[in-house]
Specification:
By secondary structure, the protein is mostly helical. Helices cover about 40% and strands about 0% of the residues. The chain contains 3 helices and no strands. The two termini are about 50 Å apart.
Length: about 80
């Protein structure tokens, strides 16, 4: 996504904030490596299964049109 479509690319990136302690650069690098690897594994494993569609569901036609909610019941109001 780009900034031209109205979304902020910085808003989609993860944000890490250290609230306590004083970690060294090596500790921060190790943390980012572990979290990045866990994120990559989770995103690879996260696959949405498509529900199976039967032949009946593929070939059936709707029995009626959708209900029109703008017409009052009995076609009169009062």
């Amino acid at each position: 996504m780009s900034a031209t479509d109205g979304t902020d690319p910085a808003a989609e990136r993860p944000h890490v904030e250290i609230v306590r302690g004083n970690p060294s650069e090596e500790e921060l690098a190790a943390l980012l490596a572990v979290v990045s690897e866990a994120y990559v594994r989770e995103s690879e494993d996260a696959v949405a299964e498509e529900p199976p569609v039967s032949v009946w569901q593929r070939t059936r036609r709707s029995l009626r049109g959708p209900l029109r909610r703008d017409i009052p019941w009995g076609r009169f109001s009062g």
